[in-house]
Amino acid sequence: MPRAGRRNITSAAELEETAFELFDEHGFEHTTIADITAAAGIARRTFFHYFPSKNDIPWGDFDAGLERMRAEFRALPRDLPLLDAVRHCVVEFNRVPDEQLAGHRRRMRLILGVPALQAHSTLRFQSWREVVAEFVADRLNVPQDSLTPQTIAHATLGVAVAAYHQWLARPELELSQLLDTAMRELAAHASPPNGQ
Amino acid sequence: MPRAGRRNITSAAELEETAFELFDEHGFEHTTIADITAAAGIARRTFFHYFPSKNDIPWGDFDAGLERMRAEFRALPRDLPLLDAVRHCVVEFNRVPDEQLAGHRRRMRLILGVPALQAHSTLRFQSWREVVAEFVADRLNVPQDSLTPQTIAHATLGVAVAAYHQWLARPELELSQLLDTAMRELAAHASPPNGQ
DNA sequence: ACAGTATTTGCACCGAGTGCATTTTTAAAG
DNA sequence: CTTTAAAAATGCACTCGGTGCAAATACTGT
């Protein structure tokens, strides 16, 4: 279904790949947008038609993932305990087919490893938190911006990020496993004063 | 105790105040460093002797606070359950004398409300998380970079940030109260499958 | 007056990002 | 085939944050 008008000369995915190669070679900070566009054969100005900022390069189609997670939440039985539901969806959201694992790791190593991207991630993760808060608010029948949903959303993101860091540091461990363990970790230390 | 050499013409605190007034009037994004330095009567270049970046203006002496929190952790009885200890220190770290409340709110409204600052906060909060992780690691006798301390640190920060957002939105509520409640929130939903 | 020191400043730069007007490519209508 | 209108690509000038470096300035103590 071809629309009128000039066709795209490249794509976000293609630009991302070009950029990643340069990042691997020179590092994120030492790669300028001019470098990327030169390598991709487009004008510097054009870059900003594909990405709102340099920081957004590694995010792929994050929004599609969010929609998936929303669906996942909706599909869950209403009687599944709240945090079990959240844990399940976090794990599922981050499930990645084996053949995409390397790419996913490369993405996340950038996002969570480069300071500028780490900072920027907070802004992108906001919509992720909203998905969680939305679900919790609905389950508890409270406003989405009230304390409990927001707290659980923030904490859950924190847990997930911690698990990811662990995954990046220990490639031999499984991401899903780490996320699941991390999510249970809090509960384990929460109620009984057992300190271990 | 006067040292040799030229004396400082201003101070970070004074610059911060000047900057805050401009932020209040025009917003953070629409205030340039040139605006600030002009208002403060110093050269643009000099600004960067006082702050590493525009984003660091609202942070005051955050590091001193971290040291206080470390001390707080050390002073705690070893048999206080882990998460109780963490909760206590989070609340204490964020205890602010009444006469500084307004200033603290102004600070935090910026840090957590302006996107650029929200992003940057992730980098500043890293050292905060490290203080928590350090304590947890010590208590559990595991490496600081292992999953449990990192997870608890990340989650705790998330909870605290959620409480702060709530505080900013509802000035009538007490910060300490909100932090305490938020910290207990997770545990409440964690173990028993009661969904409410 | 002089030496040493720390701060301030000026200047020239770089890189990200934006606004706006213009050019280029393309599909489809006349 | 020509014209039209859409959409993308581009060029250019500009703003702003931030840095490196060298020179100027203000201060203390000899």
Automatic annotation (TrEMBL), chains A, B:
Keyword DNA-binding applies: yes
- Record's signal peptide: none
Q: In this protein, which residues make up the domain named HTH tetR-type?
A: 9-69
Protein name listed in UniProt: Mycofactocin system transcriptional regulator
Which sequence ranges are marked TM in the entry?
none
Domain of life of the native organism: Bacteria
Q: Read off the NCBIfam families from this record.
A: mycofact_TetR
